Amino acid sequence: MRCLLDTHSAFWYFAGSPELSENAKKVIEDSGNEIFVSIISAWEIAIKRSLNRKNASLCTVAEFFDEVAASGFELLTLEPRHVRPVETLPYHHRDPFDRLLISTAIAEEMTFLSADENVPKYAVSWLW
Q1: Looking at residue 33, what DSSP letter applies?
Q2: pLDDT digits (tens, 9 = 90+) for 28-87
Q3: What strands, in cross-sheet order, belong to the sheet with 74-76?
Q4: What is the set of domains in the chain, with CATH numbers?
Q5: Is the pTM of this model over 0.70?
Q6: 47 contact partners, CB below 8 Å, separation of at least 6
Q7: How far apart are the C-alpha atoms of 33 and 22, rounded to whole Å?
């Protein structure tokens, strides 16, 4: 299975947080699965840290990249095909980062691992 982690899912995995569901953890740790994180997540962290959001201090962008490299996850760059589905996504979610991550999962035909309650409202493969 090819899976894309939502930003918080990657964060929680790296931190060993109990907020990460057991199901998501099993999927991430299954060596038969390909796990991806998007450059969009790094952008989201950078923006939120620059706005001094209370949860943004959990890691820097550099720390995020270090964790991605150490985990063996694949870093997914942003491609034009990832942006196209955004045009037709319904507005269940206004957060541009979440919309673009969902769009990327759709374009790449990946399963999106996210605790976000709005994700199942989209036509995307989803697990939590």
Answers
A1: S
A2: 999 999 999 999 999 999 988 888 765 555 688 999 999 999 999 999 999 999 999 889
A3: 74-76, 34-38, 2-5, 111-113, 126-127
A4: 2-18+27-94+105-115 (3.40.50.1010)
A5: yes
A6: 97
A7: 16
